[in-house]
Amino acid sequence: MTVQTEGTGTAGQILDVAERLVQTRGFNYFSYADIAAELALTKPALHYHFRSKALLGEALISRYTDRFFGALNTIDSAGADAQTRLDRFIALYRTMLSSGRMCLCGVFAAEYPTLPPAMCVAVLDFFDRNETWLEAVLRQGVAEQTMVVAEPARDVARMIIDTVEGATMIARAHDDPERFNRVTEQMLSALRA
Q1: Stated pTM of the model
Q2: Residue 110 contacts residue 26 (beta carbons within 8 Å)
């Protein structure tokens, strides 16, 4: 079955509402009834577009991943130096946090043991792709002599994604976006040559 992951039609509206609910409540803390009530749809209408919550979750991850890596491609196409690219990466998280949301895949990672297998695979793929992108940025920074990166660079890339995801969660829990800013600035400072 091909699942619609974009558009302005009903499926797109369902995904928009579900994404917001996941990013603010968590995947396990909303139901089709919540979406149906918000969109004035019947639950059978939701099931027409997404037969199960697992398929809805897969579509959410697919759409989010496409959008996130579209944003990274935009960062790449600007031809910026490594520090600027890393700053812009962190700004993606800062923007989510300032809107009261979390990284969608970060929320899914927190609920990982309860997710269907296909969603687990998609979440891990999202983070693996992030690590690959960050590793390339770090290598660029070393080549530009603007960053000091311990080897292996992949481990530093993992530290960055883990720090940013964790800082987002804790800052949200404290309702203190400045906490995120302080942590990420300390991390960036440690990487500067």
Answers
A1: 0.91
A2: yes
